[in-house]
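> forwarded from #structure-qc
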């Protein structure tokens, strides 16, 4: 008996190996500490710093299990909110580290970092979850929205960009840095006073 291998031409190979599932919320409009940690790909102990950095208000909960409004989290961290349940499912895919982006793009993690630092990365800009500065490693806090990276790989328009901003959103950044990639400022050790919130 002869076996033939069939390929589906219209489905990219990376979707099979790197398929992600959205974070499942216990409550429809609220994220718990554990859910926020899973979505942002950080440890649960890092959630208080993340919430403080982005100004995310705690709704309720005891110290180990605070609750945060889902739309507040999305708006403050990635700059957009979901307009439908389908959008919410896409936005609740866990943010991904450089290692995942490297696996599905074929670019090394060092190439990804260099592309960001030199303002030549073709990919959508990552979210910078951690504070950056001359003595800190910004790459550890970089996270990408999977839906944006996958759209880029398919050649589709990049979804969920912050309104009025092509690929990045800047807050509290000096005017001369707004014109270019704010990660270039990190590489030049001048990002100590800037706060990056990229998509």
């Amino acid at each position: 008996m002869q076996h033939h291998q069939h390929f589906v031409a219209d489905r990219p190979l990376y979707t099979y190996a790197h398929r992600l599932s959205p974070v499942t919320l216990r409550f429809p409009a609220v994220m718990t500490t554990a859910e926020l940690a899973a979505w942002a790909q950080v440890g649960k102990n890092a959630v208080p710093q993340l919430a403080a950095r982005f100004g995310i208000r705690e709704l309720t909960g005891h110290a180990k299990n605070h609750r945060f409004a889902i739309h507040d989290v999305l708006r403050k961290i990635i700059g957009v909110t979901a307009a439908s349940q389908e959008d919410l499912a896409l936005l609740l895919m866990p943010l991904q580290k450089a290692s995942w982006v490297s696996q599905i793009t074929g670019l090394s993690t060092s190439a990804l970092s260099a592309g960001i630092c030199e303002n030549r990365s073709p990919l959508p800009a990552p979210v910078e979850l951690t504070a950056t500065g001359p003595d800190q490693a910004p790459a550890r806090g970089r996270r990408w929205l999977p839906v944006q990276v996958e759209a880029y790989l398919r050649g589709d328009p990049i979804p969920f960009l912050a309104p009025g901003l092509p690929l990045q959103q800047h807050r509290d950044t000096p005017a001369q840095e707004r014109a270019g990639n704010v990660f270039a400022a990190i590489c030049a050790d001048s990002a100590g006073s800037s706060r990056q919130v990229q998509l």
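QC bot note: Residues 1-17, 165-199 have pLDDT under 50 and may be disordered. Residues 109-117 form the longest helix (9 residues).
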